[in-house]
Write a structure and sequence with these properties.
Length: about 325
């Protein structure tokens, strides 16, 4: 595990944004900065920490961890569904296929927690699915639930909808939606089984899919964005889950939930002034992200402390690619 001092030293040098020359307009989401180059997309994963749809702070090496987790899972799940990843010229950067994103986020849940728990508590229903009475917080579902939400514009919150509404509102056509559901559940099963081998539970996660149009006009479904990262998923420690659950204790978390918890404790739930996070807390958060990365991938985390050379590396990728296309 990385030395705490290396993380501390990086506090003043977090990667908060990437500006490239010669690649056109920059699109900034909460966490990623992207450039579209023809049929490709340059995706830089920054160290920005978002919670409650606001950018709160930056966490050393968070971008590298997320990027590394996503590329680990993209490679592992290729047998289930093709994905957008083409190359990784720097530990914080992916070159991906630019796809036509579906306007829904696909959330799969294995356990009753988070917003599903809040919805269930209000009336035994989650995303239009009726659940049995008397379920406990953090209880495992017999079979995972698929709960879609709309992709809201920047600054707005996503809206939870039912699977039926995805089709009835015309967001995704029925045949494609069936394929999306099937693939999402298959990915979740694979991710859960793999996590279990590492003594972790993949509690829930969010997938984003898109399509590319082939030369014959047919469409191929592609897994895009990020997959099974700590920003898009909850992870709990497996071997302590049962005992803690039976004793009504919160599971041991290896995800962003503890950041949310820390913010709520300080009275912040998305509105008003941003709370200032202490250096100590930022380092703790970084250590958690890195720990989850190492546990899941089984790899030692090698920190990238500089962004220098990134422009040249990306240019080199496109130089090779152009000559390939000729
Ligand atoms: N291969 C791809 N082609 C097109 N768009 C993509 C692709 N992969 C990811 N995206 C989009 O790029 C953006 C990534 O930025 P980021 O994760 O920072 O956004 P976000 O803050 O989560 O915002 P959003 O609410 O739009 O998801 C997302 O809007 C995502 O849907
Ligand atoms: Mg995102």
């Amino acid at each position: 595990m990385i030395d705490r001092d290396i993380v501390k030293a990086q506090l003043k040098n977090t990667f908060t944004e990437l500006t490239l020359n010669g690649f056109g307009e920059k699109y900034s989401g909460k966490v990623r900065d992207s450039y579209i180059v023809g049929d490709k997309r340059i995706i830089f994963t920054s160290d920005r920490l978002s919670a409650f749809d606001r950018i709160i702070s930056s966490i050393p090496f968070k971008g590298q961890v997320l990027n590394g987790m996503a590329s680990y899972w993209f490679a592992k799940t290729e047998h289930i569904i093709p994905n957008h990843l083409l190359a990784e010229p720097h530990p914080n950067v992916l070159i991906s296929k630019q796809v036509n994103m579906l306007p829904v986020e696909v959330i799969v849940r294995g356990y009753l927690t988070g917003s599903a728990w809040r919805d269930y508590s209000a009336g035994n229903e989650v995303s239009g699915i009726r659940l049995p009475e008397g379920m406990k917080r953090s209880q495992r579902f017999e079979t995972p639930l698929l709960t879609p939400s709309t992709k809201a514009e920047m600054g707005l919150h996503d809206e939870a909808i039912s699977c039926d509404e995805v089709v009835s509102r015309g967001l995704v056509d029925e045949a494609l939606w069936e394929e999306v559901k099937r693939k999402a559940l298959e990915l979740f099963k694979f991710g859960s089984d793999d996590a279990a081998k590492r003594n972790l539970i993949l509690v829930d996660t969010k997938y984003e899919f898109g399509t590319i149009t082939n030369s014959d006009g047919s469409k191929t479904l592609i897994l895009a964005d990020e997959v099974h990262t700590q920003d898009s998923s909850r992870y709990w420690v497996l071997d302590s889950y049962k005992e803690r659950y039976n004793n009504n204790l919160e599971p041991q978390m290896l995800d962003k939930e503890f950041v949310r918890g820390h913010l709520i404790e300080r009275g912040f739930m998305g509105d008003g002034d941003l709370p200032l996070l202490s250096d100590e807390f930022r380092v703790d958060t970084a250590m958690k992200y890195i720990e989850a990365y190492e546990r899941l991938t089984g790899k030692t985390f090698i920190p990238a402390t500089e962004l220098s050379g990134i422009q040249e590396k990306i240019e080199a990728f496109f130089a090779v690619h152009k000559s390939e296309q000729k």
